[in-house]
Write a structure and sequence with these properties.
The protein is of the alpha+beta class. It contains six helices and 25 strands. The protein starts with a helix and ends in a 5-residue tail after the last strand.
């Protein structure tokens, strides 16, 4: 092991010695000096070149904002403007490698309207371009010289907004009523054929977790290709309250029974256990819960056993259970009196 280690050390020392001898050779020194002169020469040439004037072509993107909802700009409108500029090489290098042009933003509602098109004048476009150029840069040419923005008027339709999302509440809390959206109706714009296929618009997906109080959220509308909205968003109110349970005894009633029949049922009353908001506890009474069975259902039933459900209940009562949820009945025909 020791002899092998000594061999590795001797190999390393001989390699270092060889490298030192190579670096001290006259030819290597001459090559290194030549390379340094070439590098310096290139640096001086580059500095001199960057001080000379050049002309180049660049492009600036265009962006249109505040487009009226009842119109659609034609797909052919310009997306960028090409410019020819003249400046020192250092400035032009900054445009291409360093500074990035911002989009020229055009407020459509402030543009001059000429029948079915908006006009961006040459002077307006030139002013917007000049704002992004260095003081030393000369604008020699830009294309297009002016902008003509054709548009089409669109049909309109008012549709309801529906909630799109999922709601999870803390234990003991539930959604206590209808989700309210304001405005509940929005005007949409698009082609007649497209609008005919749209009956509603949805909010963006909202995910509510561990809700334990009423929430008010601002939501955007879910985008529909080819359709514009007169409003960008709506307010969504989600009523969430603490819940409790209340049990009431409700009689089972039979209606539309011909006078020649008598109905015997077991049981005649059932227990209805309701999950309700704490604020509605005193409001819920036996009079608000109704179980009525039409005689027709009894005639159609041959088993003598019938599932029951509430015929009438408050709109805010969403969750309940009935015990028992079936009754046994006997349909008797009354004897005729001579």
């Amino acid at each position: 092991m020791m002899s092998r280690l000594n061999g590795l050390v001797r190999t390393f020392q001989s390699t270092v010695t060889g490298m030192k001898a190579f670096l001290h050779r006259q030819r290597w020194k001459e090559a290194l000096i030549f390379f340094c002169f070439v590098l310096l020469s290139f640096g001086f040439w580059l500095l001199q070149s960057l001080q000379q004037e050049y002309e180049t072509e660049l492009s600036i993107p265009l962006r249109y904002e505040n487009v009226p909802a009842n119109i659609a700009l034609a797909p052919s409108v310009a997306k960028q403007v090409r410019i020819h500029v003249k400046d020192k090489g250092s400035a032009l290098l900054n445009y291409t490698l360093g500074q990035k042009f911002r989009s020229i933003t055009l407020d459509v509602q402030k543009l001059r309207k000429d029948e079915m098109r908006y006009i961006v004048s040459r002077s307006m476009l030139q002013d917007e371009i000049s704002k992004q150029l260095l003081a030393s840069t000369t604008l020699t040419l830009f294309e297009p010289q002016a902008l003509s923005l054709p548009f089409d008027e669109q049909k309109s339709k008012e549709v309801p907004v529906v909630f799109n999302g999922s709601i999870e509440t803390e234990g003991g809390f539930l959604v206590s009523g209808d989700i309210l959206i304001s405005p509940s109706m929005v005007t949409i714009y698009g082609s007649a054929s497209l609008l005919d296929s749209i009956q509603e618009v949805r909010t963006e997906f909202l995910k509510i977790e561990k809700g334990k109080k009423t929430l008010v959220k601002n939501a955007s509308l879910e985008a529909i290709e080819g359709v514009a909205f007169h409003t960008e968003g709506v307010s969504v109110t989600i009523p969430i309250e603490e819940y409790t349970e209340k049990t009431l005894t409700i009689p089972v009633r039979f209606v539309q029974v011909p006078p020649q029949y008598t109905i015997r049922s077991f049981p005649q009353e059932v227990e209805v256990s309701c999950n309700i908001p704490v604020s509605k506890f005193k409001m819920l009474t036996e009079e608000l819960l109704v179980i009525e069975i039409p005689f027709r259902q009894l005639e159609e039933n041959v088993s003598g056993s019938l599932a029951i459900d509430l015929s009438s209940r408050p709109e805010w009562l969403k969750t309940y259970r009935i015990d028992p949820n079936k009754i046994e009945f006997l349909l008797e025909q009354n004897a005729r009196i001579p």
